[in-house]
Amino acid sequence: MNPLEESIKKYALSYETSKDLNSIIDAIGDAKIVLLGEASHGTSEFYTVRAQLSKRLIEEKGFTLIAVEGDWPSTQQINRFIKGYTDAPNDVRDVLKSYNRWPTWMWANEEIAEFVSWLKEQNLQKEAQQKVGFYGIDVYSLWESLEELITYLSETDPEGKDLTLAKKAISCFEPFNRHPENYAMSSINISQACVNEVSNLLTSIRANEDHYKNEQEADLNLKINALVAQNAEEYYRAMVRSDDLSWNVRDEHMVEAINEVMDYHGKEAKIIIWEHNTHIGDASATDMAAEGMINVGQLLRLQNKKENVYAVGFGTHRGTVIAGEEWGSPFKRMEVPPATKDSWEDALHRTGANNKLLIFNEENRHLFTHWIGHRAIGVVYNPEYEAYGNYVPSKIGNRYDAFIYIDDTKALSPFE
After folding, report:
1. Contact call for residues 380 and 328 (beta carbons, < 8 A)
2. pTM score, two decimals?
3. Residue 208 to residue 205: CA distance in whole angstroms
4. What H or E segment, with its residue span, contains residue 208?
5. Alpha helix (H) ranges present in 208-295?
6. Count of alpha carbons within 13 Å of 283, Cβ hemisphere only?
7. Would you state the pLDDT for residue 316?
8. Staple partner for 42: which of 181, 281, 310, 322, CB 3.0–4.6 Å?
9. Spatial separation of the C-alpha atoms in residues 109 and 116, rounded to whole Å
């Protein structure tokens, strides 16, 4: 047995029931930011275990905010549903169908339906300031966010300067027919870019934010949609220049959105973040650092005290997963082959084909800081080529504060 396997055998804890998560709950301590990862966007257990942890953090440690790797406008429908801000239908499945951008299965699925229903029931028992919020922090919803801005401003301030700026911004993007790639290519000629329009819009809304104060968070909704518009414009321009650059723009936006949500809810706010491991696990402990890439986990660690941020990674050895064969294609249930030899997941499997969890602390962290491949499955996946592009060289003990390993996993349950 090699030294890594010996360390796993020594420090791994059994994970069979929700009670076994006590060690992670205890280790989180008084942290205000808890990041919960996933090794794929289509594995049922990653969603259900994150839900179990989130429920306990809400009940036992007073967390009231959840941020997910989803579009702000779609996720606001969930937030309004669970907080009772809307008279829309009470069927959680209908509300989740607001996630209509590919890959829809990430949030329109049975696992999320159960969790969102639980959140709504919990909020019915809470005072307004204690209700749990559910927010999307991704950057893709350029047109949807601009449309929400125009709809709201048309109703609340039809003669105002901000509505004029919002209309000017969306008209700048109209020639591109809602195709980000069209705008991205056109923006190579900077004279065709819409930089000033979205920047002026965000600046004006921030300057006038007191004018939009609202008990149902319309002011926060307005500000984040303007932020999305500005950063999405930058993201789509970056796409044609560099994948690494666009990655950084996206993760910087997600951190900015997280901070806006936390600031809005006050200095005592505590937030749970659901994203892929590649976003929540510190990029400085991966080969991403060599390419100049950063991520959400790294930035939040840099911006906050060490004890205030806690990151939990997830992984599996084999099973099934929901993914697409190419971008935009229908989802499929795919086989996840056994982990590649000498990978992190392979080492966890070789030390016992059972579920387990690891807590990295001052006593043992140094034992898990050598480089090793760590599996990452995206929304586009081809199991046949997994060994050639689905393993991120990582120093696991530095990348996460804890790790949950589920040996054999099953696919997510998307709405048909």
Report:
1. no
2. 0.96
3. 5
4. none
5. 218-239, 243-264, 277-280
6. 22
7. 98
8. 322
9. 11
- Token duo for residue 82: 């669970």
Which residue type is seen at 288?
A: M
DSSP 286: B
Architecture of domain 3-63+271-409: 3-Layer(aba) Sandwich (3.40)
Looking at residue 256, its amino acid is E
User: Token digits for 249?
Assistant: 């723009």
Query: How far is residue 14's CA from residue 54's CA, in Å, rounded to a whole number?
Result: 20
Residue 131: φ, ψ to 5°: -65, 140
What is d(CA 321, CA 132) in angstroms, rounded to the nearest whole number? Answer: 29
Q: Give the model's pLDDT for residue 280.
A: 98
| Start-to-end CA span in the chain (Å) | 46
Q: 319 has which bridge partners?
A: 336, 409
Q: What is the pLDDT of residue 193?
A: 74
> Consecutive sets of 10 residues in the chain, 416 residues long: mean pLDDT of each?
94 94 97 98 98 98 97 96 82 92 95 97 92 97 94 91 94 82 71 83 91 88 96 90 91 98 94 98 97 97 97 98 95 97 97 96 97 97 90 98 98 94
Best CA proximity match to 142, nearest among 231, 255, 244, 257: 231
Angle formed by the axes of helices 161-173 and 142-156, nearest 10°: 150
Specify the residue for token string 């509505």.
163
CATH tag, 64-136: 3.30.1870
